[in-house]
Amino acid sequence: MTNKIFTRKDLLSIQKNTSEFLMMDEVELLKENKVKGKKFFGEDFWIFKHHWPGDPNVPAVFQTEAMSQISSILILGSPENNNKSLLVVNSNNLKFKKKILPNDTLIVFSELLSFKRSLAKFSAKGFVNDEYCCSGDFLMVLQEDLI
Known about the structure:
Helices cover 16% and strands 45% of the residues. By secondary structure, the chain is an alpha+beta fold. A 7-stranded antiparallel sheet has the order 1-2-3-5-6-7-4. The longest helix is centred in the middle third of the chain and has 17 residues, at 60-76. The radius of gyration is 15 Å and the shape is globular. It starts with a strand and ends with a strand.
């Protein structure tokens, strides 16, 4: 399953988020355990009119969400995990070093460190214009769809 590219349309069918809360525009599977994802934060991104008017930037919680959503594709992108959810149960070592501004593109690299008994551990780092801006480690649990 390496070198597969998930488009925004693919991601919307995999993730259970609305278009407005999808924090990834494209994800590329680099290896079985590594992905690269992109999120473009255009100047019309809805949060900019609410988060620090006059000094708009992407809140840390949205950066965290982007890292966790992009990471999740390593598990949810597999056909055997269709109709399942991957929920964050723990996040550690969150760091935010640079503001993400309107018209910036966040590039996230994530690695699946382990996946045992429905628990997945990830480590992710985000960059804007090749400058490190955020990182975090995530523990997520895979759940069956409860419909």
